[in-house]
Each structure stands twice: as structure tokens, then as C-alpha cells.
Design goal:
The complex is a heterodimer of chains A (259) and B (263). In chain A, helix 2 packs parallel to helix 8, helix 9 packs antiparallel against helix 10 and helix 9 packs parallel to helix 14. Chain A is an all-alpha fold. In chain A, 73% of the residues lie in helices and 0% in strands. Chain A is globular. Chain B is globular. Classes of the chains: A mainly alpha (259), B mainly alpha (263).
Chain lengths: 259, 263
């Protein structure tokens, strides 16, 4: 409940400058949509790729962007976590009788970034309208599971990136390969990539389990039964759980750097 | 002139400090390049029609773009932005130098140094293992070099104009968010411009951002034949003149009647 309180206080503080907030939202909406333009340009020229049409890829694109957008909206605290460590501000967090992980998650929530979700949802809706999915159906359920799994996965990656600062103090910029690189990779079907890439994005970072396999099964692109595809996004939840465990291990060995 | 060169040199020395950040950025850009390379391979494997760019040309475009990514006018000078916000720019206006030229020199350094630090590892790796081809001919290579220098100036002129516009907008957060994406798309870094739909080509071929990356890449890969290359170098030069003229004029106007913020 405290979490909601923190969220609403973030919300109110950002709404103080509502006009500026709106302009920024529109700018952000536009700038994240550019990604889809990149996908669309290639499909406009090539029509079909390995049996995938732009609408089918749009489903995956939408899910990945909604998941990433939701994840990064609540991750400002993790992004700035290494500054927190350097400044010694984390000591203050530890003093409060609330789970530190929760405090960092609720720190400075970026409502602005939700416009990436709006963009993703729009593409998802537009793509889905080209298929005859019933609104209440197994398909919708799989898509919802998939969005939840993707959100958890990206959030887990951001938690890991922050948790590694317990060891390195500085943020490991290299980890951006997994977050932003994951977003870039996840926009297209996994079958586009070579074997070693697919293995990494299935067994190390289970991106293909949360977004690709569920949709591929829906569209009967991969020979996986639909029930298996609909539980595959659970790997995202497991990933987030493991990321939190890593965080706890890290926080146990924390020594203050503050001055 | 010496004063402006000294500023360029000082900025270069400062920017050279950020070597670790450059390493991380190179890795990310390289990874992005690998993903895009596989995506292009997938797209080209499903077509038999003749495209305006071949697969190997597209991959060369891609790697040149990844190597020269910092040449794009996508960031503005943070220090100058802070000066405008806190009002310290007033001191700058007092100095007996042309402020536009100073800002331009700083913009040049801001584009040049990160590019120099980051381009070689990517060019070497991609050239050896990942399908970056050498320029189609020696002449094309030489013209490419000229075109890259023009691209550097064009990019600096664009970002300096954006800087000057901050006198009016102050925060510039909106433009800072849009500029990277506009330049990403219109320079052809995201998808090479020749692959864009046919009906968009008339617009794409006259907008200034293509001078930052698309024209050098086209000369390099021979999409623009050598005998017409000079026309395109002229195109770049014309846009540089436009941006410099307009930026300079706007700066003069700003200096005459703007209100200093802060204090």
C-alpha cells in the first residue's frame, strides 16, 4: 500500500508541470514510434520475411515494447543506483524499515516512459485487428501472459544491472546490451537470428520464451503446443525472482562508500 | 582564428578523457550491428527481386553507420546548455570573440573526438570478420574521406543551430528528445535511405540529414558513381552554408534582445 502512496506522490509531482509533461510525452511517443517505422520500412520493401508478415511481427513488437516500457517506468531508481551508492545515499534507504528493493523501485517513477507502452499497445492492437482473434479467447490470454512475462524479464535485467553495482560501484554500461540490445533483438522473431544468438536469448536471457514462442505458437509458426507456449512466459517471473535474489546477495555484502 | 583553434584543442583534450565510456559504447554499437546484420540477411534471403541496395551494400552501410554513429547531430553541448539556463552565457557575450564560432568549434570537437575514439575498433572488426567491404575504388575512397569531413561540419552546424535556438526555448528538453531520433531516421542510420519506399525518395533526397551519413555511404559503396559525386559534395556544402548562415544570424538576433536567465 505504501508502494501506491509513493507512486501517487511521484505522479502528483510530475503533474505539477502538466503542460511541459504533455509535450514531453508527445515527443517521447514520437521518438519511440520511430522504431516501428524502421520495421515498417523494411517490410514495405520486402513484404514477407521467412514467412512472417508485418502484422505478425507487429504482435511481437507490441508485446516487447509494452514490457520494456512498463519495466523502465519503474526503474529510474535502479538506473541511478550506482550514484546512490557513490554518494552514500543507500545508507539512508537501509535505515528505513521497509524493503530497500521496494524503496528503490518506487523512487522517481517515470510516467513519461509509459508513452512507449502506449505506442506498443497501439501497434499490438493494430496488428491484432488483422487477425480474427476473439476478445475473450485463448489468444488474448496468451498475449496478456506474454506481456507480464516480458515486463518481468526486462525489469529483472534492470535489477541485475543495479545489483552488479554492489560489486563494481560504477554502473556496468555493458549491461545495456541486454536491456536496450534485448529490446532491439526482441522486436523481430527469433527465427531471424543465428543459432548461438537464439540459444543465448532462450537459456541465458529467456527473451524468446516470454515473447517469441508464445506468439509463434499462436500463429503456428513453431511446432509447440499452445499450452506450453502459454506457460512459457513464467520464465520471466522466475528470472525476476532470481534477479531479486542476486540483489539480496549483493546488498548483504554492501559496505558504505559515503563520506 | 587561433583563439577558436585553441578552444577546439582544449575541448578535444577534455573529451579524450572518456575512454572507458567509449569502450562500453563500442561494444553496444557492435552488438546492435550484429543484430541488424542478421535481420538484413533474413530479409534479403526471402526476396529474389532486385533491390536498390544489395545485401553486401546494406551491410557495408550498416557498419559504416555504426562506426560513425557519433557523427550524427544528436546531442547538444551540456555545458553550454547549463550556461544558458543559469545565465552565465552573459559573460561569454562580453568576450571580444564571435560566440557563434566558439560554439561551432566546441560542436566540432564534440562530434570529432568520440567518433575518432570509437570508429576504428568497429571498422577493423567488421572489416575482418563481418562483411564490411572496402570502398569500390580508390577514387571513391578519397571522395568518401572528403564527404565525411563535410558531414562533420554539417552535423556541427545543425547542432550549433539547435544550441542557438535554446535562447528562445530555454529548456530544450523536447528538441533534445526528438533530435536523436530524427537524425537516426533521416540520416539513414536506422535503415539505409535507398531501402525506403519509392514515394518517399523525393523528400529524403533533399533533406539535410542525409548529408551526415547517407551521402558518404553512397559514395563509399558506389551507389553514387564517381562522376556525379561532386554534385553531392556540393549538396552537403550548400546545407552547411545554410545552417551556418542561419545560425549566425539567429545568434546575432539573440545577442541583441534576449533576457538573461538566473542570476
Amino acid at each position: 500500500m505504501l508502494f501506491w502512496k509513493l507512486i501517487s506522490s511521484s505522479f502528483r509531482s510530475q503533474m505539477q508541470y502538466s503542460a511541459s509533461f504533455l509535450t514531453l510525452c508527445i515527443a517521447h511517443l514520437f521518438s519511440t514510434s520511430i522504431y516501428f517505422l524502421g520495421v515498417w520500412v523494411l517490410f514495405d520493401r520486402f513484404q514477407m520475411v521467412k514467412g512472417w508478415t508485418v502484422y505478425e511481427v507487429g504482435l511481437i513488437y507490441g508485446i516487447v515494447h509494452i514490457g520494456f516500457g512498463l519495466g523502465e517506468s519503474f526503474a529510474r531508481g535502479f538506473e541511478r543506483f550506482s550514484y546512490m551508492l557513490i554518494q552514500g545515499d543507500f545508507d539512508r534507504v537501509l535505515l528505513r524499515p521497509i524493503n530497500p528493493l521496494l524503496q528503490i523501485a518506487a523512487h522517481d517513477i517515470q510516467l513519461l516512459r509509459l508513452s512507449r507502452c502506449i505506442q506498443g499497445a497501439f501497434i499490438l492492437g493494430w496488428s491484432a485487428s488483422h487477425f480474427s482473434f476473439a476478445f475473450i479467447s485463448i489468444q488474448t490470454l496468451v498475449i496478456i501472459f506474454s506481456i507480464i512475462g516480458t515486463t518481468c524479464l526486462f525489469y529483472g535485467l534492470l535489477v541485475i544491472q543495479a545489483a552488479l553495482s554492489f560489486w563494481t560501484t560504477e554502473t556496468l554500461e555493458i549491461m545495456n546490451i541486454t536491456t536496450y540490445g534485448g529490446l532491439q533483438t526482441g522486436q523481430y522473431p527469433m527465427s531471424f537470428y543465428n543459432r548461438s544468438f537464439r540459444l543465448i536469448f532462450t537459456f541465458v536471457i529467456p527473451l524468446s520464451c516470454v515473447a517469441y514462442y508464445p506468439i509463434a505458437a499462436l500463429l503456428q509458426r513453431e511446432s509447440i503446443p499452445i499450452w506450453a507456449a502459454s506457460i512459457a512466459p513464467v520464465t520471466g517471473l522466475i528470472f525476476l525472482y532470481l534477479a531479486c535474489q542476486l540483489w539480496h546477495i549483493g546488498s548483504r555484502r554492501y559496505h558504505s562508500t559515503g563520506c | 582564428m587561433n583563439g577558436y583553434l585553441a578552444i577546439l584543442k582544449m575541448r578535444m583534450k577534455t573529451l579524450l578523457q572518456y575512454r572507458t565510456a567509449a569502450f562500453a559504447a563500442v561494444t553496444t554499437e557492435f552488438f546492435w550491428g550484429l543484430i541488424m546484420m542478421m535481420i538484413y540477411q533474413a530479409f534479403f534471403s526471402s526476396t529474389t527481386a532486385k533491390e536498390p541496395l544489395s545485401l553486401s551494400q546494406s551491410i557495408t552501410f550498416l557498419w559504416l553507420g555504426q562506426a560513425l554513429i557519433q557523427l550524427l547531430p544528436w546531442t547538444i553541448d551540456k555545458e553550454l546548455e547549463a550556461q544558458i539556463k543559469n545565465g552565465n552565457v552573459a559573460y561569454e557575450l562580453v568576450r571580444p570573440v564571435d560566440l557563434y564560432a566558439i560554439w561551432f568549434a566546441r560542436a566540432l570537437a564534440l562530434r570529432l573526438i568520440p567518433t575518432l575514439m570509437r570508429c576504428f575498433p568497429i571498422l577493423i572488426l567488421a572489416g575482418l570478420f563481418f562483411g564490411l567491404e572496402p570502398p569500390v575504388s580508390g577514387q571513391a575512397g578519397a571522395l568518401f574521406a572528403i564527404s565525411i569531413i563535410l558531414a562533420l561540419f554539417l552535423s556541427s552546424a545543425i547542432s550549433t543551430l539547435v544550441m542557438v535556438s535554446l535562447f528562445w526555448t530555454i529548456s530544450g528538453e523536447g528538441i533534445q528528445r526528438l533530435l536523436p531520433n530524427i537524425s537516426l531516421l533521416l540520416s539513414g542510420l536506422m535503415v539505409p535511405l535507398p531501402l525506403f519506399p519509392h514515394w518517399l525518395q523525393p523528400f529524403l533526397s533533399i533533406q539535410p540529414f542525409r548529408g551526415v551519413l547517407d551521402i558518404p555511404c553512397r559514395i563509399y559503396t558506389g551507389v553514387i558513381p564517381i562522376d556525379t559525386a561532386f554534385y553531392f559534395l556540393g549538396f552537403q556544402l550548400a546545407w552547411i552554408c545554410c545552417f551556418v548562415w542561419f545560425g549566425h544570424k539567429l545568434m546575432k538576433k539573440a545577442a541583441r534582445h534576449f533576457v538573461i536567465q538566473g542570476g
